[in-house]
Structure to design on (593 residues):
């Protein structure tokens, strides 16, 4: 038995050589950190390490669940994510359908090229750009002043109440075009004879979109929706780090940046890890619930 | 087929909508370009939209006089090139091996990978692991932790699986080794999907600043994005205050930032149109199926 295994293993040694580096990397950078999660149940000190630190049970979890800051952070995370989901998600689908309807092929290609472009800008660049556009003498204030819509420049980025909108709209500006790619691909896969048949039956263009295009991309819509719901507590750390400042902090701190600030800037490793676990557990739960719900409503799901 | 009236009206509104949409993307970008070519103090008066009002190259000249930017640029180019080659080699090799259903341990590996997609150690434990491996303040911290990606591996594996088996068979009969088949047959046939993964990983490497923020304190290892990040945030005020050493009435911290943003983005903007056709087809290969 064992020698048969060894023989088979040796006969495919080249393939084994090709796969082992990846196995090692996956163990080191994915599985070891999973075991590292035990520090959420410890009073971790870097000197004693995973093995030497004292266990404190659920204390870290109790601590953040009793903490007002935490609920504020949770509200921000959910607020920003829901705004992105409610505005950005339908917009991507509408945009994909509209781009698909462009009849001039060079203009269609041009629109796609332009709309994908912001996706390739880093959040650092975009953060700088937004600061410039929204600054007191920036694009937006200049425009509002010159049209006499306002009489004094508004300092958008230091206005905490404007932050959710800034985060949402900048994210949509950056990603909406990119988000259309998969839908466009799915639309391209719809059988053209379905459109012909609808047309013969006298369906006008909006009816054809509603009865042919949307059902044709329903599965991919469901899939993308599920993935979005699963990442609702992960509200873009990079974006927060570049747009955050002392004045908008009450509305801009989200779970990921909170974990970063507590854990890495202040060294409270155990507490920050506990918050991280909470957020992953909620995400997986949300994903499972959304999966069950969409399975009932439509007939497609991830699992 | 002719268009009916409703369709003509629809198309007209669609065109108008698209023109507005394109403008919303393009005009703000042109605004930054215009500002980067404008005298900084003049720009502070506001009212610059799409054209510089007091044209100057002094922002770019000042930035390019600072030698640390060349160093940062070099680090970024190096981490992008080495990162992409390494990522493709490691992830691609695993994908090829796993595309063979007879590979021993295949099921265990895939299951492990699926677990990593749902459970994530999180920022802090990952940080501790990378630190304890001694990767902090080393160039390799940019490369090694992201050599393998299970998600990219799945895309490549699905692609390799759909390549016709017969090509490999005939090469095998001619006495080609597994490695020869991989490099001489599989890799050339998989160009579009490899180019897509390369583009995505390249963009990640080019744009990432967070790894440097977490692990790197050695200034000579700063990538360009982190250089810019420090210049933009108040924490980095000191590094941009350096600009104030030159006494000038032509630029401000802001105008220098704008020029740096343009310089940092330029390389991606230059390669992007050439790679576009690959990533569109590559997205289709990997994304829709499964």
């Amino acid at each position: 038995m064992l020698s048969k295994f060894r023989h088979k293993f040796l006969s495919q040694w080249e393939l084994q050589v090709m796969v082992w580096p990846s196995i090692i990397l996956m163990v080191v950078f994915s599985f070891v950190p999973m075991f590292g999660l035990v520090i959420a149940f410890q009073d971790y000190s870097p000197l004693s390490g995973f093995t030497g630190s004292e266990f404190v049970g659920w204390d870290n979890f109790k601590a953040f669940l009793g903490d007002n800051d935490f609920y504020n952070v949770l509200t921000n995370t959910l607020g920003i994510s829901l705004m992105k989901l409610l505005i950005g998600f339908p917009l991507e689908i509408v945009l994909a359908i509209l781009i698909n309807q462009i009849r001039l092929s060079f203009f269609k290609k041009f629109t796609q090229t332009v709309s994908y472009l912001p996706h390739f800008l880093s959040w650092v660049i975009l953060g700088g750009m937004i600061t410039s556009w929204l600054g007191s003498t920036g694009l937006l204030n200049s425009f509002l002043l010159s049209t006499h819509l306002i009489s004094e420049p508004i300092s958008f980025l230091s206005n905490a109440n404007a932050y959710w909108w800034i985060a949402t709209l900048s994210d949509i500006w950056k990603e909406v075009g990119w988000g259309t790619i998969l839908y466009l691909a799915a639309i391209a896969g719809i059988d053209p004879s379905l459109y012909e048949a609808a047309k013969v039956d006298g369906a006008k263009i909006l009816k054809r979109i509603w009865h042919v295009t949307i059902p044709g991309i329903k599965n991919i819509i469901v899939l993308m929706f599920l993935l979005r719901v699963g990442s609702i507590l992960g509200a873009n750390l990079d974006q927060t780090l570049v747009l955050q400042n002392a004045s908008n902090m009450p509305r801009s701190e989200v779970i990921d940046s909170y974990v970063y600030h507590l854990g890495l800037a202040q060294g409270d490793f155990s507490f920050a890890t506990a918050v991280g676990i909470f957020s992953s557990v909620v995400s997986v739960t949300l994903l499972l619930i959304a999966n069950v719900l969409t399975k009932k409503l439509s007939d497609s799901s991830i699992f | 087929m002719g268009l009916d009236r409703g369709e003509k009206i629809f198309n007209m509104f669609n065109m108008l909508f698209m023109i507005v949409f394109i403008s919303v993307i393009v005009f703000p970008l042109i605004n930054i370009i215009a500002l980067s070519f404008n005298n900084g103090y003049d720009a502070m008066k506001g009212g610059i939209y799409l054209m510089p009002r007091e044209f100057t190259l002094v922002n770019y000249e000042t930035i390019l006089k600072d030698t640390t930017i060349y160093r940062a640029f070099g680090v970024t180019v190096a981490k992008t090139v080495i990162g992409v080659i390494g990522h493709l080699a490691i992830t691609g090799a695993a994908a090829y091996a796993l595309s063979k259903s007879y590979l021993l341990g295949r099921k265990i590996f895939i299951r492990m990978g699926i677990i990593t997609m749902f459970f994530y150690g999180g920022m802090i434990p990952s940080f501790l692991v990378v630190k304890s491996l001694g990767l902090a303040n080393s160039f390799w911290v940019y490369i090694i932790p992201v050599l393998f990606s299970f998600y990219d591996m799945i895309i490549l594996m699905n692609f390799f699986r759909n390549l016709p088996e017969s090509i490999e068979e005939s090469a095998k009969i001619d006495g080609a080794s597994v490695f020869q088949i991989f490099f001489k047959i599989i890799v050339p046939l998989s160009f579009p999907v490899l180019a897509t993964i390369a583009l995505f990983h390249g963009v990640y490497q080019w744009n990432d600043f967070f790894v440097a923020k977490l692990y790197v304190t050695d200034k000579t290892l700063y990538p360009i994005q982190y250089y810019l990040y420090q210049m933009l945030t108040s924490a980095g005020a000191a590094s941009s205050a350096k600009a104030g050493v030159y006494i000038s009435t032509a630029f401000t911290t802001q105008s220098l930032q704008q020029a740096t943003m343009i310089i940092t983005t330029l390389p991606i903007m230059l390669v992007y149109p050439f790679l576009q056709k690959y990533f569109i087809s590559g997205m289709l290969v990997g994304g829709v199926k499964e």
User: Anything to note?
Assistant: Strands of chain A lie at 42-43, 54-55. Chain A touches chain B through 93 residues (CB under 8 Å). Residues 35 and 220 of chain A are 34 Å apart (CA to CA).
